[in-house]
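In the previous chapter we treated chains in isolation. Here, by contrast, the input contains two separate entities that must be folded as one system, with a combined length of 660 residues.
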Amino acid sequence: MRHEAWYRLDNVAKIYPVLARSRHLTMFRLSATLTIPVDPDLLQQAFDQTLDRLPFFAVRLRRGLFWYYFEANPHPARIEPDVRQPLRPLLPGEHDGYLLSVRYTDRRIAVDFFHALTDGTGGSVFLKTLVACYLNLACHPVQPDPTHGILDCHAEFDPAEMEDAYKRHARFHKAHRPSLSRAFQLQGTLKPGHHFQIISGSMPVEALSHVARAHKVSVTELLVGVAMFQIYRLQQKGGFKIDAPVRISVPINMRRFFPSQTLRNFFLYAMPGIEPAYGDYTFNEILQTVHHFMRYTVNEKYLNAMMAANVMPENNWLIRMSPLILKNAIMRLVYSASGEASFSATFSNLGVQNLPPDLAKWIEQLDFLLGPSRCTPVNGAVVSCNGQVVVNLTSTIVETDFEREFFRHLVRLGVPVRIASNLN
Amino acid sequence: MSYCVNCGVELAPSEKQCPLCGTEVINPAQPVPENPWQPYPHRDDPVIAQINRRFIAAMFTIALAFPMAICLAIDYTYSGQFSWSLYVAGALTMIWCWLAPGFLSKKTRFLPVMLPISCSLLGFLYLVEYLTAPAARWFVPLAMPLVLLLTVLASTVTILARRAIIRGFAIPAAILVAAGLMAAGTDLLITLLREERWLLTWSWFVLLPSLAAAAIFLLIARRQKVRTEILKRLHI
């Protein structure tokens, strides 16, 4: 980082270093499949230029006595060839300490991000800026367009892009987080090591929107509803605890409600769910539950209260003065007991990525991958671009029951789905 | 384009079988191409070999508990009571208390290490006094005050810092002062035990440099570059 020697982790980012080595979910990937082959030399130049423009991505994680912090990484950043099993948990010393890695195959540029660094929105700006910079170097001019997340690689760094927006916007002094009981979680045969499978379904935006409109819900609510219904069905099939609630964690982009230019983390979770103990649910009931829950919780007031509940512990002197080792142990315990235990899966929708025509014509497909974990073995990530919605389901278990039922359900609803995977 | 007859989904040309249900793709009108574009290459990173620290801690515990149990058993079998084996048991327990935080956490810090050390040290010293010469009475006048002084000084600095009575660069300065006071306390207690009077002797040579170092530390901290370096490592 050329502009400031070091900076603190934002509010949400603090949990990720604690989980970094053991869980995939601390990583996510954004990738662009181009219509032309990728030249590694030009990509390396584009990566260097992008890091010059966005210096807070060129950092490494360090341990302080009380908190982790980021500091400028003195090593040069290098691109790497892509692998079949991406999103490997962060290892000390890997990538020269960089918290992101740019990987390439013949036509794909992928960036694996450590979640402490940024969220999906920040990551998408990085990827789009990188791809635009690469295309410019490859003599395919793309004009910078900050409204579409394409920054000018030769412009100056803007400090507003690295603010901790949680601290600026959290305004309540008293707030509490609703406590959630342990949720049902899928189980199966774990894949070895850091391996997991990716099953990707792409479908036309129009067909999916049409189905969502017919059910009077949003596309996110429809996909979350389908996922929840299928997890619920697998739970009721037997072999599992059938009374445990089924909840899905849905990341919410806070920039929609609180204006901020930040490219660091600025999201919170909504946690729609059902209680199978109350009786049998139909698909429509689940869809309505998800819809009304999202309408009730995803608004400025409720999100601010949630944000304040997150920020408050950070202002507590007892917590701040506790040594990092103690904080890490407590955070690990709390996260295992009440964090990842309270939901069955994560389903993140990055939304529609509107690209200007001079960039859109070079991009065949955008992909968004979320690392799964042992507790939530199947996670979903959605992004749409150029009229195609791509749903990537990542899973740490061998069995594909959930993925099969999820995509079959969409087909039954009238949405044509095209499947690709990393299994072949 | 091929479809899975089971799932009804279209399959990418790279899929030789349906990833969802495993059904093989058989499409006489469009055979699977020999080298289709693969969304993910076959290359892979090596599998991570993770060290299970809790497992190592458990093994370490067994490794200490086993000789302890053998010593206790041999001692009791031959002499009908626990005598020399209690030294072994005490020492091994103390070693466990000293080393366990290192195995149970990734990086050891001061307080989680200090408390087990203090308690186990006190226990072991008392055991030694009890087993060797209870009449000599060196534990209460010397060993216990020294260990307690160390614990109190460390705790005082921690509490002062936690309550923000001292902050920033006063904290390392306070640690240096505490180190000087520890040396002075040790000197006083030894002199009191040997000569039965309160007198500082050699500890001046520790106390004064400690105070000077604390002052120097505060002065160095006035330099912007050094202050930034220290701040980023100790920010709270």
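The mean pLDDT of chain B is 82. The CA atoms of residues 142 and 189 of chain B lie 6 Å apart. Compare these points with the single-chain example from earlier in the chapter.
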